[in-house]
Amino acid sequence: MKKYFKNCPNCGKEQGYKRKSDFNSAVKRNVLCLSCSNKDKTQGKNNPMHGKKHSKETIQRIKEKRKEQVITDETRKKMSESRIKHLKEYNTWDGRIHTDETRKKMRLSHIDYISKMKGQMFPKYNVDSIPIIEEYGKKYGYNFQHAENGGEYYIEELGYWLDAYDKEKNVVLEIDEPRHKYYQNDDIREKEIKDLLDCKFIRIKLDV
What is the CA radius of gyration of the chain? Predict the structure, then answer.
C-alpha cells in the first residue's frame, strides 16, 4: 500500500510511493509522472514514426518478412550459449548460486523499482499470439484475460504476467514461441504458478 504522495511538478497528477526514502528521492529530484516523462523524451520525438501508426498493410508486410527470416543452426547455437551464460551470471553472485526464493525477491524488487520510477508496468507481448489464445478459448469454452482483453493477468506474489488466464475456471494458458526452447527456467516458472494458484496449466508450443 502506498503511504507517501506527491504531485507531478508538470501536470499536478498524484504520485504514490511505498517507502519514505523513495518519496524523498522523488521530491529531491523533482520526478515527473510517467505521462509527462514520456512526453519529454526527445528520442521519441526524433523518431520518424513518432505520433504515427503503421497501416494494416505495412503490419502485414512486416509479419510476412519475419516469417521469411531463417535462423541458421550456427546462430541458434550462439543464442543458446549466450542464454546459458546469462542464466549462469543471473543465478550466481560472488561464486554463490541464487535460490529460487532469492531470484523471486530480485524479480519483485526490480518490478517494484521500475513501477515507482516510471509508473505502472505493462510487459511486451506477441500480437500473433492473440488469435491463437482467442481460438483456443472459443474451442474449449474459456474466457481468457490477455494483453488485448483486460491486460495480462499479473501475479503479484511471484512477479509474473500470464499470457492468458481464465480466473473463473482457474486455467492458465501460455504460448511458447520457438525461442522458449532456450529458456531453462520455464519449468520452474510453471511449477511456481501451479503451486500458488492450484490451477490447470496449458502450454501451446509454436513451431514457427
Answer: 20
* Of residues 127, 187, 191, 120, the one with CA closest to residue 156: 120
Give the largest CA-CA distance in the chain.
54
Cα separation, 155 vs 40, whole angstroms: 31
Secondary structure element (H or E) that encloses residue 175, with its range: strand 171-176
Assigned C-alpha cell, 130? 492473440
Alpha carbons 12 and 195: distance in angstroms, whole number: 43
Cell of 106: 530480485
Average pLDDT for residues 108-115, to the nearest whole number? 70
CB 127 within 8 A of CB 146: no
- What's the DSSP call for residue 142? -
Most confident stretch, 3-7, 21-25, 197-201 = 197-201
Find cell 505493462 and name the residue: 122
For 14, the enclosing helix (H) or strand (E) is strand 14-17
Model confidence at 141, in pLDDT bands (50, 70, 90)? very high
Q: Is 73 left (phi over 0), alpha (psi -120 to 50) or beta?
A: alpha
pTM over 0.90: no
